[in-house]
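Why do we bother with holo predictions? Because pocket geometry can differ from the apo form. Keep that in mind while you read this record for DOR.
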Amino acid sequence: MKLLRSLLEELEDLLLALQSTRNVTGNKRMPNRRKKKKQLVLKIQMFIEKVLSRLIADPSLVMHTAINLPFLNLLSSNAENTPEGPPWDIKSVLQTGKDKTKKTLSMTTSITIPSACDFHLHLRQDEMMRMVTPKVQEGGVSLAYIMPNLQPPIKTTAEALAYKAELEALAPNVTFYMTLYLSPELTPEEVRKAAKAGIAGVKSYPRGVTTNSESGIENYEVYYPVFKAMEEEGLVLNLHGEIPSDAEKDICVMNAEERFLPQLEKIHRAFPKLKIVLEHATTKAAVDMVKSLGDTVGCSITVHHLQLIVDDWAGQAHHFCKPVAKYPHDRDALRDIVKSGHPRFFLGTDSAPHPIAAKEGPKSNAGVFTTPLVLPYLAKIFEEIGCLDKLENFACHYGRQFYGLSHKQGFEDKKVTLVKESNTVVPAKFEISSTEDLGVVVPFYANKDIGWKITSNFY
Ligand code: DOR
Ligand code: ZN
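The structure, written out:
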């Protein structure tokens, strides 16, 4: 009730602000006003959708609400009309205060989609790997593209294949695609060998920017012969798109991605047929850059970057990851590109588990753990930003289309059903081992109600 009231109060403020943009339509700075108005209308729509879903769950709340807004009156008069809630059109109510169209607003309460493909995943090794790997399927993911930053990193075809066999034994229903860690040991010959063995890509980490990146890249040009072999063999280059911090050059975690983008463009121009994925994009600049480049350049987007901004990780270790979440306008750009259904932007969760001690210690390790609930998190976020209809392409099709990869035989058409249900609370933690005391991993949105759950998986 309290939440509803504060939402309504906020909504009133927004409506007043919108009113004031209408009163100054003669102003010369029209484009700015129009933009502001558009943003306000969007915000208001999102608020109304939130309020409506609470009212639909319990229409009697309308009677207790002292705030008198036209759309609330309308709600109360229509509340009994359907079992799922009242029929109205939000835009028309917003514009006119009345529901003229009488269109039915269908509240989605269940979705069935193909199982998802996660094109950026850290499954670790040893006990952590044994805990995390079976959770890939629990999160609704059937195809997983695996990162090589183990200790020591996966640098050869033989190591990648041995790692793949371990993962397959732990999750036999999941199709795994492996990557090699870009380092001086990776030769054009090894690239050709890797391609024959079905290794899908090569991951490049700039030196020192994140977990296990001590042997990462300082200069990309020395790898051009390797990139050439990759282009010829059809291996994908997966770029961690940040440059190392450097106080003298005013480079820090907030601009490290944007400053990397010229490098992406340079490699693309040098190897236009090489498939390149800019991993875990966090900025509007990155979205704009990928959009502007050719069809061989794609971009993975994580669950958590669709949800977080800088304020959410400053002071909250479990939201700290690399690249860090940025400004609200950056998050908006990620949401907008997903909403637009652009086929070169697809799911790569970068789910990266760390023991709680490494997250909450004196220096927090970068990584957010989303694997056990990937599709429920996405359903929550896509519903909140008003594009549940875009979830399937983003999570199931676009990545696979870009990479040209398929599921292993017999696992091509597994489905997942998600149902909207309140009190679907994310577990507080996952024990790393059931036999030894190795601590726990805290998942993204621990203890929070995410409102969506998987009811049938892999059927
Ligand atoms: O947050 C992150 N965690 N970003 C990365 O690039 C690496 C990852 C990890 O391996 O922990
Ligand atoms: Zn990663």
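Residues 84 and 107 are 7 Å apart (CA to CA).
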